[in-house]
Specification:
The structure is a homodimer of 291-residue chains. Chain A is 44% helix and 13% strand. The first copy, chain A, is of the alpha/beta class and 291 residues long. Chain A has a domain of 178 residues: Rossmann fold. Chain A has a six-stranded mixed β-sheet with strand order 2-1-5-6-10-9, with helices on both faces. A two-stranded antiparallel sheet of chain A has the order 3-4. Chain A has a two-stranded parallel ribbon with strand order 7-8. In chain A, a hairpin with a 2-residue loop joins strand 9 and strand 10. Chains A and B meet through helix 1, helix 2, helix 3, strand 4 and helix 7 of A and helix 1, helix 2, helix 3, strand 4 and helix 7 of B.
């Protein structure tokens, strides 16, 4: 399922719910307004009542809406991972009430893992504590760090092992190269950062230049910031469209990029060509560790 | 300067550079293509040459373009901060070659600071190591964590103190409430998460519902994901438009939100009204610690 199919499906499934919810929304706002000079205590009590009613309204929105869940979400990190690849989806997954996130280091310890940009993040669990059949297995990308992680056969075997029973196997950016190294892309549509898309066929993948690419239980996102679009699609898949819409509004995800340079289709040729050239040495090194 | 003014200025300043760069781009691609059967060594050598030439091409793009710099960027964290508020701009700031990022905890120690979503991030410096006149002072937002941080008078005093000589004083999301608490918003245009925009006037601020709001050296971003738009505007201000365009392409920031619910103007009333109601108790608590 590609982005357009996903969006279409999401809109169709959301249509009926909207009709239903129009009425429910009225129910929750049927309280008498407070007088302007209401006391702080009265305001707080009213705020609590409003919050409870809103909670109930969301709970009644329909079959595919799940306010509470117990998803197990495994997010892997390794030295040099791109922190934004991780934190975009992490924010969205963490907004799923009841879901549990396992942040697990390639080093199989609880020491801080330094991102490619210098942010040090602490794992939450050891590999031995990792669920065998998580709802989501997620791998972020990076540059030199990803190259080194591709050479770490113990880590690659761990990815392969945990992917076997995962409901969804996922990545953002060059994280798909790690999935490829683990043999998880054979014959499947996948995406990656635009710079590394050309490497996917070596892993038997069918490269697709889309923001988020669905192929069965394999869901891969494009470069870095695609993690936010990816994460919202995953929330919709696990909790229903309306839950994802609420989280998108909570994250105020109404992006306004200051320039039109976010894609190779729209970036100025000078910027695109020279940036691609700056990545050329990394591509050659990545090619060396690809099949 | 608001978003539209910024974009207009950025486009104007970029126009001349584009003309210049059309020629320079050709110069860097004037190498003879390698034969298809070139050896891995030859490919690697060529990749290195291409990268060097691209680096030089970028360096020659014009007066406002700075490939290398020595900016001092202070990013403050506190228990319960929203990790994505921080990591969006952090990724972009870290992409400015030569810039140094100081990640500093409200607790004035180097212990991990847990975000509202459970991510534990390590500070890099103590408050005593913080530059007195940084290029950027940045404060992320959060929910209950921000409420607690507003009550931490030592932390608020530290923000006020370091803001005095900062080139830019900045925030994302509810981080602007911390700036307000430090007395930095008086008589100035500012923004915040859509839920907390109504609280800004209590701090003497003029609330503006924009993605990124510029008022002199005060730059505030909207909720959570606005940090990416904010960060790119800051990179453009410090390194020039073309640098920011390259970083936008590196981050593949060509967003495709799956739903139209990222703004209160476009979200379904049911989602908007009930989400706002769920935040009502927090708003009342924040009101208690506002002037």
């Amino acid at each position: 399922m590609d982005r357009r199919q996903f969006t279409k499906l999401a809109f169709l499934s959301g249509g009926l719910l909207s009709l239903l919810n129009g009425c429910r929304s009225l129910a929750s706002s049927a309280m008498e307004p407070l007088p302007a000079n209401a006391s702080p205590e009265a305001r707080k009590q009213r705020a609590g009542e409003l919050s409870d009613k809103a909670h109930q309204a969301f709970m009644q929105t329909g079959d595919d809406f799940k306010m509470h869940g117990n998803e197990q979400i495994v997010m892997l990190i390794y030295p040099g991972f791109a922190a934004l690849d991780l934190v975009g989806p992490h924010y969205l997954f963490a907004s799923m009430m009841g879901a549990k996130i396992y942040l697990i280091s390639s080093a199989n310890d609880l020491k801080p893992v330094k991102s490619g940009e210098g942010l040090e993040i602490l794992p939450t669990h050891l590999q031995s504590q990792c669920p065998v059949a998580p709802d989501i297995l997620f791998v972020p990308g990076g540059t030199d760090g990803t190259l080194q992680a591709m050479k770490n056969t113990v880590f690659i075997d761990f990815i392969k092992n945990r992917a076997a029973a995962s409901k969804y196997v996922t990545s953002v950016c060059t994280g798909s190269l790690l999935l490829g190294k683990a043999g998880l892309l054979k014959g499947r549509k996948a995406t990656s950062h635009w710079v590394t898309l050309e490497l996917l066929p070596a892993f038997g993948a069918i490269p697709v230049k889309e923001r988020v690419v669905w192929d069965g239980n394999l869901v891969t996102g494009g470069g870095v910031t695609a993690g936010i679009d990816f994460g919202l699609q995953m929330v919709a898949a696990l909790r229903g469209r309306q839950y994802a819409e609420a989280i998108q509004l909570q994250a105020e995800y109404d992006p306004m990029p200051p320039f039109a340079s976010g894609s190779i289709e729209t970036a100025e040729p000078f910027v695109k060509d020279n940036l691609a050239a700056m990545f050329a040495p990394l591509i050659e090194k990545l090619r060396d560790v690809s099949p």
